[in-house]
Amino acid sequence: MNFEQSYTQHQKQVQKLAMTQQLQQSIQMLQMNREDLTGFLKQKALGNPLIEVKVKGPAESDFSAPIISRTASESYHQFMDERMNRLPNKPVSLFAYVVEQIHLNMRETYLRKLVLWLSEFLDKNGYLTISLEEASRQAGAEQIQMLDALTLLQQLEPAGVGARNLQECLMLQTERDEYAPNMAYVILEEDFHDFANRKWEKIAKKYAISLKEVQIVFDYVQLLSPHPGAAFARENEQFVRPDLIVREDQHELSVHSVQSGLPIVTFQKEYYQQMMALGDKEVSTFMKGKYTEYDWIQKSLAQRGETIARVGAAIVEKQKAYFFNEKRPLSPLTLKEIAAEVGLHESTVSRAVNGKYLQASFGIVELKNFFTAGLTRSTPKTSGKKVEDELVSVENVKQELKQLIDEEDKKKPLSDQKIVDLLKDKGIQISRRTVAKYRDNLHIPSSSKRKRVF
């Protein structure tokens, strides 16, 4: 049997996209927000003597505003306001604030040394992370001395600092509050678990008080802070500079790019001409390569701005109702729809909305927030013979769910299954599990925890 091996040549034409380094970086630039873009370009400038990067200052017509949030600040008890006013104005850590109080309010004694030692075991929320037994052993102090030191630590601001658990934290705050309900401290001390598990009838019977009085205590406890030290870890309110601004003119919307805050790449023309005039071949080749890089960066920046503007305009056109209706309803919208509208790939649209913000008259919204899944709402025709289906966004369903809960009888709150039935009557069919998920997203407790006795 003979085995032969032969070689032949075939010519084959194949089309494929070559992902060059410049193309990859152009895609990266589209995905970057303004801060990342500025950092990227400054890094480029370090290796290119022909590039200088500056950031365009704000114009009078440009302004920054806080990002729109679903959470709104609630009114707090008078004593909470008073205590917050005692906090220092300048940024300071919880540990530094506590130590400063110890030095100001306590004499230099052995007990003060123990208080200072204990303060090192406070976590960021103000809780003590070491037991008294372990603290006594490590510090070489008697347990009664350590207990005295803990008592002094717990008398400092903010109220609740030095607590060893949530129960003690709430008790420390209640103890110092002259406006606290009469039975609040006793219930927290003696019946904390029954109180937390809403076994209120048992508590009312034990202390011969009404359910209404227990409800008052519960409402009061909701105002207390479970994390008294968290105020010192608060970040500054987030402000962003929008990439686009929407303006309303006679019930028409127009989208404009915001130039302020964008990095500006300038070309060092004189330096380039000086280097080229040297007549050195290697220098000329180097300079031409750096000029090509500068030219590519300028084109990529222009394309980035144009893409974001086109995508933003398409989104605004699809979500007009959001800008004209105070309830901010969102229509179901996908990346695929916008991609088809502007003639781009879905991945390009995704990069264009990533970390980009739009300024409207009512605040700043992240572009990706305009994309929401849709659910089917069935509505009967006027004839009553057929049923028409329409898409409704998940956000709108959440708002209808919230409205049902807002209007419910608080003495008999709606169960998740009842909400399912009520939404079904409106043509929206979702499962009980989905209702629970949407309720959690809206930070709305279950029906048992929403129940009130008055």
TrEMBL record:
Listed InterPro entries: Lambda_DNA-bd_dom_sf (IPR010982), RNA_pol_sigma_54 (IPR000394), RNA_pol_sigma_54_core-bd (IPR007046), RNA_pol_sigma_54_DNA-bd (IPR007634), RpoN_core-bd_sf (IPR038709)
Sections of the chain in a coiled coil: 384-411
Q: Do the record's keywords include Nucleotide-binding?
A: no
Instruction: Determine if Transmembrane is one of this entry's keywords.
Output: no
Describe the location of the RNA polymerase sigma factor 54 DNA-binding domain by residue ranges: 285-452
Top-rank taxon, per record: Bacteria
Q: Which Gene3D superfamilies match?
A: Homeodomain-like (1.10.10.60), lambda repressor-like DNA-binding domains (1.10.260.40), RNA polymerase sigma-54 factor, core-binding domain (1.10.10.1330)
Report domain RNA polymerase sigma factor 54 core-binding positions. 87-271
- For this UniProt entry, what's an example GO CC term? DNA-directed RNA polymerase complex
Instruction: List GO molecular-function terms, semicolon-separated.
Output: DNA binding; DNA-binding transcription activator activity; nucleotidyltransferase activity; sigma factor activity
GO biological process assignments: DNA-templated transcription initiation
Q: Which UniProt keywords apply?
A: Coiled coil, DNA-binding, DNA-directed RNA polymerase, Nucleotidyltransferase, Sigma factor, Transcription, Transcription regulation, Transferase
Q: Which family does it belong to?
A: Belongs to the sigma-54 factor family.
Q: What is the name of the protein in this document?
A: RNA polymerase, sigma 54 subunit, RpoN/SigL
